[in-house]
Fold each of these.
Amino acid sequence: MAKKTPQRTFNDVLALLGGQRFDVAPAQEGAKRTPNAVQVRKYGCAAEIAAAPDGTVEVLARPGWLLNGEIARLLDRGYQKFIKTSKLEIPATADHLRAIHEFSEELNEAIGATSLYNQALGTTSNVYHYDRVKGRDE
């Protein structure tokens, strides 16, 4: 039988992240949507979290590479993964993918989120867009 991980409160998670050398600062993007949102950063990656109404943690912006101050999403075009912001798109390197994966795993563990098999194997993309599918938008 699987062990249940106890739900951590938002303040417990912030204390835990600070102890694990995450940089914790007020969120820039999430602050517009949710009061008291924070951005956590490590390894060149970032995510935005806030307190959920029940006191646990809500992820506002999925973990991604921090590019020009914006959390970039990971885009899979079938032949290559790309890191994309609203203004810039660059090919993702193995170092980018390793950092995003490690950051995501550490953040999920600190939050007490369920670790999913496909995510534990490697980095999953936000969007999958294959070049052989014609007429399909992002």
Amino acid sequence: MSFLSNLPIADLIASYGYLAIFGIITLESAGVPLPGETILISSAVYAGSTGHLNLGLIILAAASAAIIGDNLGYWVGRRWGMPLLLRYGHLIALDHGRLKLGQYLFREHGGKIVFFGRFTAMLRAYAAVLAGVNRLDARRFLVFNGLGGVAWASIMGVGSYYCGRSIEHIAGPVGLALLAVVIFGGLALWLFVRKHEARLLAQAELAIPGPLA
């Protein structure tokens, strides 16, 4: 557990266990930038190394927190997000056309964004809020959010548990590799949108004619 010894999150796990896991992941999923995945991985490693926590309960706490937090974020975004963006979005380069493009992309690919966003650091805290802002169908959101929350908690929890102490030797290289993937993936997505923005905007206007409510 040496790689955790200097992190405050280790004290949270040792002192509050499942409650800390549930609280931090719930808040992160609702849109608060907290280390939800870090506490899941750290808790699973702690359980595998010491036996002081139960892996099944860690996964249950993490999956439940992810689903509940995402639902909170979704309904906050659905209720208040679009009015705020329609009024102030131009300040962050989100004009009416780009807001409509966001709705179009969520209409076409919203389920995939919600599911895979759970595994992506850049999207984990905001995918649910964005789904609400962009009016992804609530039933579709519930299905993909539930699947994503359970899959994420299970894969990360089980993988980290069985890595045990060896995680300290691979966490750094894996983290750097994932960071590189995220950076290059984000750059590729930005370049694609920039290159095809006019066509995508036209498709969005055709699919969602008129002003956004």
Amino acid sequence: MIDDADGLRRLLAETRTIAVVGLSANWYRPSYFAAQYMLEHGYRIIPVNPAYDEVLGQKCYPSLSAVPEPVDMVDCFRKAIDIPPLVDDAIAIGAKSVWMQLGVINEAAARRAEAAGLAVVMDRCVKIEYARLFGGLGWFGVNTGVISSKRPLPPPAPTRS
């Protein structure tokens, strides 16, 4: 399982196509804004949800097996109990990795994916990790390009002549 910054950075750098299972068309859902963020940062997003025909302007598929193109990552916005069949589908379509979102932990499914050669990430948000590792996080949503535990020094006070 990938759980370190270097491994996450490498996985995100090697990934180009992300199938987002459980992607909602509702703008206020975490799956929507995570997928939108990744789409805006150059990733090909493939929505997988039988409830929709299209999400974020992308054709939506009812299942992973219905996706007609290669997938690098399967990003799972589903409950932990739903992960084992998704791992089976990810293996069947030749995906390279399975990413389980925040709060989604299924150790048995992770072991099965790894045994089949897939990289696995659990209990992390792809959007948060991308922003953290590639310079998109900052106070109040400002992209400082730098992540640090130290507060920046205030600007010098103006001098009076």
Amino acid sequence: MKPKQFPVPAQTPLFPEESLPGGKAPVLISACFLGFPCRWHGRPAKRRDKLIKDLKKKYVLVPVCPEQLGGMPTPRTSETLCGHTGAEVLDGLYRIIAPETGEDVTRFHVNGSRYVLNIARTVGAERAYLEGGSPTCDKEGVTGELLRRNGVRVIRVG
């Protein structure tokens, strides 16, 4: 079965490379790595100070939280992919169900992923550093898969 492609309008990058500080390229990074309290439980994640310091030398960091962009609150339900992948979600083969409520929350994860892809295209990011273990952010999660399908290199952190 051919992977499902989600149309996101092609855009000219918002920042011409020469206009970014020091000519640095933009890179997406999970907002929780920067200390934003956007994880499912509402508490900040362990800051990734060394990673952030190293990335700042080469890139302009663009923080994203696909779950929040997709309309989920913080704190929110604690769903996982239960051994499935973001590819299965994007291809319509698996639905993400919140264990606390039984609600199908797939749409939030897919919509947030689309927003992140749009941000990547808008700023011209060709790389993303995403939180491992997340049903959305992980390299094998919904956002990770959608970004990879659209040519963005995804690096799993954590």
